[in-house]
TrEMBL record:
Lineage: Bacteria, Pseudomonadati, Pseudomonadota, Gammaproteobacteria, Vibrionales
UniProt xrefs under InterPro entries: Cyt_c-like_dom (IPR009056), Cyt_c-like_dom_sf (IPR036909), Cyt_c_1A/1B (IPR002327)
UniProt domain Cytochrome c: residue ranges: 27-127
Signal peptide limits: 1-24
Name this protein carries in UniProt: Cytochrome C
Keyword presence, Signal: yes
Coiled coil: none
Keywords: Electron transport, Heme, Iron, Metal-binding, Signal, Transport
MF GO annotations: electron transfer activity; heme binding; metal ion binding
Alphabetical list of PROSITE patterns matching this protein: CYTC
The species this protein was found in: Enterovibrio coralii
Length: 216
């Protein structure tokens, strides 16, 4: 398994500044929800959420770090003290393995500070009593996930959300494979790399996208 090597070479989830401006705090949360699609591969965010790969994130604003009952946290995360707030979440999401070296959150991180801000503002709403995180911030300008790396089309967002949780999308775009070989690659990702199988309909859309833009 070369995840640690991958961590070194990946550029993080792609998200950078674009031309148009969003200017309500509601939009900040909305942007955050889009950017957080990738988190949902490993985290549930509903009030009755349970642990999947990662602990559920509902109520994160009222929680001490590494304190969801019964979840098997790494020693690295358990060694952190305090509770989650804007600053600790910002540092953790920028680079999980820098914040807590040895963390089990195998995720390259979110490079763009505005994308992190939006994700954190969105997380604030996932609480019985929503937290006040970035409440006074309004305008952020963030490209959709995958923009600037993946070829834009209707299914770009789906592919970005499905394929950027463990490694950079650059690993995807450097390939050129037939639809059949992409199917085998995805099967291998599920069988050997711990990826959750996609819904059949999404699986087909992802395959068509990959074979169309990154075909042989
Ligand atoms: C590939 C799976 C994966 C992805 C993708 C992922 N996480 Fe995690 N996350 C985990 C795991 C596993 C842990 C527990 C880490 C540990 O114990 O070291 C964790 C821990 C956390 C924690 C600490 C929770 C606590 O109870 O202290 C937060 C907050 C968090 N993740 C937020 C996010 C956000 C926000 C995203 C998306 C930007 C994200 N994660 C993406 C797997 C993932
Ligand atoms: C649950 C984690 C996970 C997810 C989600 C994931 N991958 Fe991967 N993928 C990996 C790991 C780990 C490797 C590197 C394995 C290695 O180097 O041995 C990898 C490697 C790859 C490679 C390089 C294969 C090679 O022969 O070098 C490609 C291409 C790839 N992934 C495409 C995708 C695509 C497309 C998606 C989305 C449909 C995806 N991955 C989603 C974990 C994942």
């Amino acid at each position: 398994m070369q995840v640690s090597k991958l961590r070194l070479v990946v550029a993080g989830v792609a998200a950078s500044i674009c031309a148009f401006s969003i200017s309500a705090s509601e939009s900040l949360v909305e942007t955050g929800e889009q950017q957080a699609a990738v988190c949902k591969a490993c985290h549930q965010v509903t009030p009755d959420g349970i642990a999947i790969v990662g602990p559920p994130l509902w109520g994160i604003a009222e929680r001490n770090i590494a304190s969801f009952p019964g979840f098997g946290y790494s020693d690295a995360l358990k060694a952190q003290s305090g509770s989650w707030d804007e600053a600790s979440l910002d540092a953790f999401l920028a680079s999980p393995s820098t914040f807590a070296p040895g963390t089990n959150m195998v995720f390259p991180g979110v490079e763009n500070p505005d994308a992190r801000k939006a994700i954190i503002a969105w997380l604030a709403t996932k609480n019985d009593i929503p937290a006040n995180w970035y409440a006074s911030e309004s305008a952020v300008e963030v490209k959709p996930l995958g923009d600037g790396i993946l070829v834009p089309d209707d299914n770009m967002a789906l592919v970005a959300a499905s394929c950027s949780s463990c490694h950079s999308l650059h690993l995807v775009v450097q390939q050129g494979l037939s639809k059949e070989s992409w199917d085998e690659t995805l099967e291998w990702m599920v069988d050997e790399q711990g990826m959750d199988p996609l819904e059949p309909e999404d699986h087909e859309k992802v395959l068509v996208y990959l074979a169309t833009h990154y075909g042989d």
